[in-house]
# Entry
Amino acid sequence: MKKTMKKNAVFLILCILFVASFCFLHSSAAVAEEPSVDASVDAENFGKLNNLMFWEPREKLAGFRNIEKLYNTREIERSDQVYALCADPIDLSGLSYKLNEKTYTFDDFMTRNRVTGIILVKDDRILAERYELGNNVSSRWISFSVAKSVVSMLTGAAIKDGYISSVDDKITDYLPRLKGSAYEDVSIKNILQMASGVEWNEDYADPKSDVNNMPSDIIGLLEMLGQKKRVAEPGSKFNYNTAETHLVGAVVRGAIGNNLSTYLTHKIWQPMGMESDASWLLHGPAGGEMGGCCINAILRDYARIGIFAMHNGVLPDGTEVLPKDWMKGSTTPSSSYAGYGYLWWLSPRSFSAIGIFGQSIFIYPEQNLVIAMHSAWNQAGSGEYRAHRQAFLYAAVDLVENNK
# Structure
């Protein structure tokens, strides 16, 4: 298996070098060398392997780009026809933003927020692409909750394909183990909007919280969730819950009768023209994919995910993968929280897929712009990091608008 992966990696590198003279794979970035630390990554080097929430900064850098060496994953196969992204760099030397009466530059943002890669794509043109901290154009990086938004789109695909009737279907129709529990009257829509009404503690900093103690296997997780109490009526209260997005993944797997990686490969990854293989973290050896976490992909393919979503799930050849109004419904504020749709974060200018350590895909439909990042924040969900990212994004979008 390792030999095959090495051969595939060599083949991919040769392909990239060959087509670099053509517009669609030309990199506008100064590419860093692949870090030598990769060679030493194995389970013995990670004492806190069972909870990566508390990895040290160096462990994050090595581990986030080598998840396949530490955990069970399943491959998502790349396309033979790569979606064209043409290098058309703009001058970002003057980009700056203010926060708390201080001014910060592009370099400051990259350093302060431990950004390992950033790409700005407008009208299929790469306006900027930059890598730091050992990453380069071929570095696969863990997505964390960015995967939730992908699962949202796979749910839409399963509805269009007729595997799921609608978002109003009850969770227990697909997961009978939860019958008789607080999930009895909870719909798929309730889960997609993080509004099941079932108790859950998603405090990443608390080692005793639910999110830091949920079982990795799906059977154990169903047992845990089946014992939770209802604290609100379904659909009435927003409460972020990663475990329940694992349920969405389980619903889709059960409905389609296949694994999510294969479904993603054939519905989106290959037909959308992703240029690199990816992988998806599993619920243990040979288990199903974690619906709430951890697709591992290169930065340019993060951007292509954003382009696919921005184009309402329509492929380059015009094929509609999602129901006609799926993305409109996905990006409509829920009744329980205006800042959230169907596993997408919402703001007045954009909708986004966001992971807890800074991984993100921000989509600006009016500007036809996607900004994607790989990051390794020191603290999960840090308010300071988020504030810097938001201020940077405002400045970046304004700069792009001024460079029309």
